[in-house]
Amino acid sequence: MRIGSPKEIKNHEYRVGLTPESAKELVMQGHEVWIETQAGAGIDANDDQYVAAGAKIVDGPDPIFAECEMVVKVKEPQSVERKKLREGQILYTYLHLAPDADQTKELLDSGVTAIAYETVTGPRGQLPLLKPMSQVAGRMSVQAGASALEKAHGGRGVLLGGVPGVMPGKVVVIGGGVVGFNAAQMAVGLGADVTILDRDPEVLEKVGTHFEARASTRFSNAANLYDAVTNADLVIGAVLIPGAAAPKLVTRDTLRDMQKGAVLVDVAIDQGGCFETSKPTTHADPTYVIDDVVHYCVANMPGAVARTSTYALNNVTLPHALRIARMGWKDALAADPHLAEGLNVHRGEVTYEAVATELGYDYRPTAELLR
Ligand SMILES: NC(=O)C1=CN([C@@H]2O[C@H](COP(=O)(O)OP(=O)(O)OC[C@H]3O[C@@H](n4cnc5c(N)ncnc54)[C@H](O)[C@@H]3O)[C@@H](O)[C@H]2O)C=CC1
Ligand SMILES: CC(=O)C(=O)O
Ligand SMILES: [Mg+2]
């Protein structure tokens, strides 16, 4: 199969779909790999490294979109990229379609077969292709929040760890999954006063057992959320209902009752965000203020630490890429029901139920396509 990776074009996105090492694995299995010139610049992988791996360097994204059977990316295709996608082509990348009606429509119009990293499952129901980026974003969320809490950045002027004789900052993490767990680890490490809310008793048990007295757990209901959020210095939004738009757990009314200069880091923004007042921001301009509350809502947080993130991502995406390249998408999905969960759009039909429900499309089960 001919597989290509263009240079990512989302704001301050420095990751790349295929590392030189991944390109080499594909080439060693007899595939052709095309890489846009400078695609690896953000991770310090130059064109010569890709050539040494057996890949071909092409000028600009057009040859890749025009001639590759599978396009391997990181972020959802941007508008100019979507216009280049073709019927019969495989797109393998993060998509986050539920909160993105425009992208969904254009993917449907293109006829592409789109496999979303974030809905591929693992044997115990987890999301292994989302996990490494959630680890990164969870850890970053505390750094981002700590910085936003500084007065010069609009925050309350609170040092999360406090100092001897002065109380630490209060960090509230909504959602104790991968993002939430990693955020809590960082916040606990800094010495903050940490509370994690989730509605899944097993998650609360796991998190509680791990952190013991170093963090508190609370069941996520409206009353507990209100109490925790309105007393917090930093709130981290880390909920997920796979493939679906994030539930709006912190309303505009609650926001008004928060402390002046408190900070919200809405990591769940890629699924639309879990605060009513969240809207996506970029690394170039990451924060805005509503009701004296600083909002940080960057939808591609891991792009800022592109080297760590690209290698972590390739570790989990490459095995499926190799299988799709070897078997073709249909046989690869038929052989692996977890990979089949990744199919979101195929030849003009929505094949992921939560996306169809959210955006009002007919749902075409993937199993019907694989018969
Ligand atoms: N902004 C960015 O750059 C990035 C964003 N993300 C996003 O972060 C979000 C979280 O991802 P993961 O931690 O991997 O998901 P996860 O599935 O590991 O954890 C989500 C948790 O939310 C909990 N939850 C669901 N509804 C809840 C509610 N009403 N109240 C409290 N908890 C609730 C679930 O029980 C689960 O424990 C996703 O939207 C993901 O796409 C991930 C990486 C980067
Ligand atoms: C998961 C995601 O949205 C990201 O890594 O950018
Ligand atoms: Mg206020």
From TrEMBL:
Top-level taxon of the source organism: Bacteria
Binding residue positions for substrate: 15, 75
Gene3D superfamilies from the UniProt entry: NAD(P)-binding Rossmann-like Domain
Span of domain Alanine dehydrogenase/pyridine nucleotide transhydrogenase N-terminal: 4-137
Metal-binding keyword on record: no
Domain Alanine dehydrogenase/pyridine nucleotide transhydrogenase NAD(H)-binding per the UniProt entry, residue ranges: 149-297
PANTHER family in the record: ALANINE DEHYDROGENASE (PTHR42795:SF1)
Official protein name in the record: Alanine dehydrogenase
Annotated organism of origin: Qipengyuania citrea
Primary gene name: ald
